[in-house]
């Protein structure tokens, strides 16, 4: 795994830039040449962020949908009293939140989606009609929100950021010739394939894609991707020469 960087197979990290550095280190350790390749930028909603601390402290529990939600919103919150209950969608979001909140953070041991969060026992410990705040971007998935409303909770949204399409540097196909991609959301799939120039559309479809969720794999298949590998962790992205 100590090949010079220029001789390593290249893998695209298709996720927001602020989250790519840790993945890059893991992938480099696995023998890849890691290339950040985000088709979107996270743009804070400053008006929403001005009201966020009040919303936060009115809630009985707060659910964070992603590391992007934490990175954008957490700096605007006073966590000093250790309240309310904090819940994240997965370990990546939990680690991001732990930088701001040093107390217990609840997240699924297995699974990293809203369905796994809904199965957590914490919802059975909250008082009837408790207020739940969901911190997310504009236009997020409503599965958990609707399910919690059906259980009688009051659910509020703090839509703290916008996802803006951003053209990645497609010239990487001419400089590093990527063989694979690691992608972390179905929305990233849509943005990636929607923006691809015609001359790179076929190479994009033939990459080996690593992802962690069946919903993302299905989005890749619909976009025309031919080679998809389900993984549990980033360090399970093995190079083709290791297979």
From TrEMBL:
<dbReference type="Pfam" id="PF02602">
    <property type="entry name" value="HEM4"/>
</dbReference>
<dbReference type="InterPro" id="IPR003754">
    <property type="entry name" value="4pyrrol_synth_uPrphyn_synth"/>
</dbReference>
<feature type="domain" description="Tetrapyrrole biosynthesis uroporphyrinogen III synthase">
    <location>
        <begin position="24"/>
        <end position="228"/>
    </location>
</feature>
<protein>
    <submittedName>
        <fullName>Uroporphyrinogen-III synthase</fullName>
        <ecNumber>4.2.1.75</ecNumber>
    </submittedName>
</protein>
<dbReference type="GO" id="GO:0033014">
    <property type="term" value="P:tetrapyrrole biosynthetic process"/>
</dbReference>
<dbReference type="GO" id="GO:0004852">
    <property type="term" value="F:uroporphyrinogen-III synthase activity"/>
</dbReference>
<dbReference type="InterPro" id="IPR036108">
    <property type="entry name" value="4pyrrol_syn_uPrphyn_synt_sf"/>
</dbReference>
<keyword id="KW-0456">Lyase</keyword>
